[in-house]
């Protein structure tokens, strides 16, 4: 950083400053701002550094005392409400710790953010009514006890529920963090996985515009509020999409960053200034930035700072020193911050005690209100409000307040409890205090009446989740007849079949407009570029240019009412758009059908946290893992080739995962998914694989629909022979299994039944459910897993070969434990080569399937091991070849 030059002509400097002051006074701030922008632009043209690139302002409030609006509320009533909520939040955590043991809980996070919430709750955050949709508020996940404490005061939660904080095993407790699945009438958004709330908030605000431009929602001033801490801003997801908010002028979006200067272990930027850093980031991204740093008590002090010495001093104090000054009190603050005679004179009329009680902006409702009011009125930019607060505010500087240990403070001493009570004027006896009793004032209490009046004005309570029933008729399976009939003599990839299925869905009169196709890029790779012309790519400004391929049939077409969301190369951004669409049935009372198609390797592996958050939020929609499998994507290598996402998907409770080999299987699965999610309103996610490997697509055999959905059906029955084997396969390897069956019949006179396994995950889910049911009713006749029923009349060893790790087919091993079961898979790192060579390398091609089948028969004593050895020699398989798992 370059040193500031000394002022060699202070008189001239003062004249310039007075001219600016006169301009503001005579013509207003807007005119002054315009003149400054012109001067800075000219400075850049003249080659002066700094100019318009200056992104950081002085370390003071953006809105000066003289410009802030009058406070419209009853500050005394609001202070009482806030005090009660603060206490009940603390009592909830302390009771849980005392009565339930190690369930944990936070004291400091909500203590820091409480005023920021309360100003919003009393004056800004609108609830949902029959006539209006409420604001969307992404509450900070680690401060949920504050939301519960307010809901208790509002009568929405009972004392019994508060006593069960973080004790959910019996179904009566309150979730530790925002969790719409566990508390479906309360929480809207899952935000505790740091960074995801901010990213979701941006795309949620954008999705609101998408719905408006497509005619689903009227234009409105509905806002998306996102609360987070300054430590959370280190997550790349927190800042990764800021440019989108500015580029699309999302003035319906407001971030509130609680800069208490601390993260879990210590300071966020002890050697720097996190507020200034974030101001530069947001200004650089094109956001409207409002800083709320100092409370009302600082106004007179700053007003007396005619030379700017105090502003300079505050701007140069790093965060570590500011935190030390707060913790050590007024005398330390006087000596450290006001460290010159000129600065000491500014506070000469104040005692050390008064200095120590000066509030930071995040705890001053007047300052917070001014910032919120400016934010909701701002146009053409998203707004970020950077507020400086204190972690553990109100808990006492002898304990957690402002200290590095604040996050881990899970208890309060008797002295700290009494100090808290006195500080916030709570009418609690010593006995009530030490028993951590909840405080619920009488309904005639003036503050409580005020609370209800304010929420009534704003339309109701928050947070609140409403999922009203809105079913609609989905197309019958016959709507996909072209896919069900197969491809004839032509080869076709299931990715191409997917495109035709989506096209049929878009054309359907009932659901067509509700389809939200989402891509990170690669639409042409997936063979779906016809959507560009057919329904257009969403852009809030339409298409301001003439595309170079305008004369082509599949030209690149952007439109204000475009249906496709092509987000650019960001799977995380796509998932956030997908979540917004997949939860629209509850957030907007408008069910939408999102279909996010992406390279399957970049889903559960890269954005699994967001998919889990979607599950938490009871999302409904389709995820398509395209170019799936470890060998189907020839030439791409290890980072693109997916061998594990289906295994990961099987661990997500509400995800139904499928690996169809044929277009008709995909059509059956997607039609069933539509029926379950949008007719029966089940909160499910369908994860479906799609390959770009071309082969003949057969017509759908009769009666296989149920087996496709359950996870397996008999595709081809072998002929008569002395020995029989069962070959299981899915996706791109199924043709190899069919070829292996033919080799077994031709070369060894062994009959092979070929089973298409559309979902090992669903087979496992069924088997686990049956096993549990048997255990819970041990005296009743035991049920049998579907996969076991399938093999009841089909003998011989079972061989499963897939384009995924062997752990995937191993999921069903417990339910066929009486059978000789051998699995083949693509364990190890991916690599580049042709499909044939890759399948041979990973030992999943037709020849390895034959060897596995022969080995299974030999293990059972049906044939000799020498047959296996001879077959390997005949097929050119080297038994000394290294295991691909270790290569």
Task: Describe, in plain words, how this protein is organized in 3D.
With 887 residues, this protein is an alpha/beta fold. The chain is 40% helix and 10% strand. The chain is built from 35 helices and 20 strands. The longest helix is centred in the N-terminal third of the chain and has 26 residues. The radius of gyration is 32 Å and the shape is elongated. The mean pLDDT is 92.
Task: Give the total of beta strands.
Answer: 20
- The coarse silhouette is elongated
Number of contiguous helices: 35
Largest sheet: 6 strands, parallel
Low-confidence stretches: none
Essential attributes:
887 residues, alpha/beta, 6-stranded parallel β-sheet, 5-stranded parallel β-sheet, 35 helices, 10% strand
Compile the SSE list and pairings.
Elements: H1 10-27, H2 29-45, H3 75-100, H4 108-123, E1 136-138, H5 144-153, H6 159-162, H7 196-213, E2 224-229, H8 236-239, H9 242-247, E3 253-259, H10 274-285, E4 288-292, H11 299-303, H12 309-316, H13 319-328, H14 330-336, H15 341-346, H16 352-356, H17 365-377, E5 383-388, H18 414-423, H19 430-434, H20 446-458, H21 481-484, E6 491-492, H22 494-507, E7 515-519, H23 530-534, E8 537-538, E9 558-559, E10 565-566, H24 571-582, H25 584-587, E11 593-599, H26 608-616, E12 621-626, H27 645-649, E13 655-658, H28 663-679, E14 685-689, E15 695-696, H29 705-710, E16 712-716, E17 723-729, H30 734-748, E18 750-757, H31 760-776, H32 786-791, E19 798-801, E20 821-824, H33 835-841, H34 846-859, H35 865-874
Parallel strand pairs: 1-2, 2-3, 3-5, 4-5, 7-10, 7-11, 8-9, 11-12, 12-14, 13-14, 17-18, 17-19, 19-20
Antiparallel strand pairs: 6-15, 16-18
Helix pairs in contact: 1-2, 3-4, 3-5, 3-20, 4-17, 7-24, 22-28, 30-34, 34-35
